[in-house]
Amino acid sequence: MNRKAWIIGASSGIGAAVADELQSKGWQVIRSSRSKGDLLIDIADDHSVEKAASEYQEKYGEFDLVLVMAGFWQRMSVQKFDLDVFKQHNNTNMVGLARCVAAVLPKMIAKNSGTFVGVSSVAGFRGMPGSSGYGPSKAGQLNFLESIRTDLVGSKVLIQTVSPGFVKTPMTDVNEFKMPFIISAEQAAKTIVKGIEKRKIEIIFPLPMAITMKLARLVPLSIWPKLFKKG
Fold it and tell me: Which residues, other chains included, contact 211 with Cβ-Cβ below 8 Å and sequence gap of 6+?
C-alpha cells in the first residue's frame, strides 16, 4: 500500500530531515514550503493554504499523513516588545496551524482515517525569558492540538503533537544564547518518525529536555520567575 506524507515546511531543518527519513522508509513524500517543493504554501496566508490543499487533492488524492512543521521564531523580551513581531509569531505558528487544520481535517474526518501532526515546542510549556512572542504561540498550539484531539475521541483520525527541544537548524543558528541538550535535525527526524510509526500522542525530545520541561510545569508561579534572576 502506498503511504503518502505531506510535509508543510520541508525546505530545510527538521522538516527536510523528516521528509528524508520518511522517504527512506518507503513513504511517498510530498514536500511543501513557501519557496520550493512539490506544492508551494505559505501558512501565514489563508488563500495559499486553501489553494495548496486543493492542489494536493487533485494530484495525490486523500490525506494520509500531514505534518505541519513550518514556523517562525524571533527572540523578543518585554523590554523591547514589538507588537508586529508578536502578531507574526501568532499568525504563522498558531493561526498557521489552524489554517492547515481547517483545510485538511474535515477531509480526514469525512473518511474517518488519517494522521495530523502539529509541531510545537517545549517553549510552550512555561514562560521563558526572551520568548514573549514565540512561547505564547507554541503554548497555543499545544492547547489547540489537545482540544481537537478531545473532539475526536472515538474517531480513527489521529492527532499527534511534536514538542522538540533545541535542534540545530537555520532557525536556531541565529541564537546567541546557550542551547542545552541540542541535537541535530537528523536525530530529531528519527525520533519524530519513530513516534509517528508508534502512533504516540505526544512526541517530546531530547529526553533530558523533556524531563526538565515536564518538571518545570510543577514549579509554582511565584517561584518560576525567580529562577531567572541575574546576579
Answer: none
Q: Give the cell for residue 16.
A: 527536510
Q: How far is CA 178 from CA 74, 166, 173, 175, 187, in A?
A: 15, 10, 11, 8, 19
Q: Which burial class, exposed, middle or buried, applies to 90 when counting CB atoms under 10 A from its CB (0-12, 13-18, 19+)?
A: middle
| Segment 108-165, tens digit of pLDDT | 999 999 999 999 998 899 998 889 999 999 999 999 999 999 999 999 999 999 998 8
Which residues, other chains included, contact 185 with Cβ-Cβ below 8 Å and sequence gap of 6+? 13, 14, 16, 17, 167, 168, 169
Local structure of 63: helix, strand or coil: coil
pTM of the model: 0.91
Assign 66 to helix, strand or coil.
Answer: strand
DSSP 42-58: -TT-HHHHHHHHHHHHH
Domains contained in the chain, number: 1
Peptide bond into 220 cis (omega under 30): no
Joined grid coordinates for residue 167: 535542534
Instruction: Give strand pairing partners of 202.
Output: 161
Task: Report how far apart, in Å, the C-alpha atoms of 114 and of each of 35, 47, 156, 199 are.
Answer: 27, 23, 7, 11
- Torsion, Cα of 216, 219, 221, 223 (10° steps): -110
Q: For residue 140, what are the domain limits?
A: 4-228
State how beta strands 183-184 and 28-33 pair. unpaired
The domain spanning residue 130 has which CATH number?
Answer: 3.40.50.720
